[in-house]
Amino acid sequence: MRRILFLIAVALSATLVRAQDAENVGNSAQLSIIPRIDLNPYVGFRSDAGSDFSLSNSSLYTLFEGSFGEHFSYSIMNHWLSDEPASLYEDTFMRVSDVNWCDWANLTFSFGDFSITAGKCAMALGLWEQDYYDYESHFDLNSTFWNNMQVYQWGGDLTWDHGEVSSTTLQLLSSPFSTFGKPFENGLFSGSLLTCRDADDFSYLLSGNLVGFDFHPYFIPEGSAKGWMKMLNAGLKYCFGDYTLGSDFGWRYAKELHMKETTGILSLEYDPSDKLNLIAKAGYEKCREVNGFMSEYLSVDGRVFGGLAAHYFPLRDNDALRLHAVVAYDNGYAGLSINVGALYNLTINIK
Asked: How many beta carbons lie within 10 A of that of residue 291, not counting itself?
């Protein structure tokens, strides 16, 4: 399968070169270099919780995007540094069971109202929480599902734009539950159907997802298990004036794992000016069975999390620099996470 993926990549590259030679109009490229630094102390409310400190989402990303001619575009997101940088380089960029230094790298061919994307892509999930770039997000304000689901997988998708603000995507990717981290190992794959509306007033993301798994006995106490994790996700967003009210709901089920899980999130954003963004967010997660995807990570039977975030953009002419402050609560930790930091997005246009 790795050889097949390599041959596909070579074929796509050759097509890309031919398109560039044939038509040198509409070519563009943009490189973004995005460092972020976080200082994140934890303060426990109980004597056994104690205190801690981390660099949280401190990181270095690059995003390289562009187009060749009229029909081809590409996007490459690299994750070069994190608070545990060695973990990003433990295996090649083909690894699908955990994050690594390549988030995605894909090529898109557009024709009429349709587009085909192939390479490493983000799983099509109907959740607004997943819609933000990783470098923009705050770990302790996000769900356990967001923090632990490896959504960057190899494969491709077909998207139909059936309106100015509406589209539908059919996607086939590798599965993050590969035992040894190889794409399509043991025939495992994931399939997604996502429909979305992104408008100024009301927007939504709706998806149905199937994710294949084949867990060996040393992962499952009751013995091996092979089947599908079934997911339904719905993200709704309503904008009124300077406010945006959002919600995410996720449901996950796998009969073979005796697994039933739910995630629910509500958020309210307020933009009093072009330079200030305020966020209030709260969520609840429930793992109803012992073998759930989140049961390994949830320290209590039902996680309640939430908090406040403030984003300030001090530069006069652009939003390249973001200063942020976050206070988050998690009943599993029984304490507060206090995060202050800065993010800078240096964008270079390449002609």
From this structure: 18
* Rounded-to-integer distance, Cα 282 and Cα 286, Å: 14
Predicted pLDDT of residue 216: 61
Going by C-alpha positions, the residue among 103, 95, 17, 7 that lies closest to residue 61 is: 103
Distance from C-alpha of 277 to C-alpha of 128, rounded to nearest angstrom: 17
The pLDDT value given to residue 206? 98
Please state, in angstroms and rounded to a whole number, the distance separating the CA atoms of residues 21 and 17: 6
Residue 249 amino acid letter: F
3-state SS record for the chain: CHHHHHHHHHHHHHHHHHHHHHCCCCCEEEEEEEEEEEEEEEEECCCCCCEEEECCCCEEEEEEEEEECCCEEEEEEEEEECCCHHHHHCCCCCCCCCCCCEEEEEEEEEECCEEEEEEEEECCCCCHHHHCCHHHCCHHHCCHHHHHCCCEEEEEEEEEECCCCEEEEEEEEECCCCCCCCCCHHHCEEEEEEEEECCCCEEEEEEEEEEEEEECCCCCCCCCEEEEEEEEEEEEEEEECCEEEEEEEEEEEEHHHCEEEEEEEEEEEEEEECCEEEEEEEEEEEECCCCCCCCCCCCCCCEEEEEEEEEECCCCCCCCEEEEEEEEEECCCCEEEEEEEEEECEEEEEC
Locate 150 and state its tokens. Answer: 């490896």
Which residues of the chain, if any, have pLDDT below 50? 1-23, 217-218
- In this predicted structure, what is the pLDDT of residue 292? 65
Q: Identify the helix (H) or strand (E) that includes residue 181.
A: none
**What pLDDT, on a 0 to 100 scale, did the predictor assign at position 5?**
46
Give phi and psi for 345, each to the nearest 5. Answer: -115, 100
Task: Please tell me the distance from the alpha carbon of residue 108 to that of residue 19, in angstroms, as a whole number.
Answer: 12
pLDDT of residue 142: 96
- CATH class of this structure's domain 2-350: mainly beta
Please tell me the predicted confidence (pLDDT) of residue 14: 45
pLDDT at residue 299 in the model: 55
Residue 335 has a pLDDT of: 86
Q: What is the pLDDT of residue 36?
A: 98
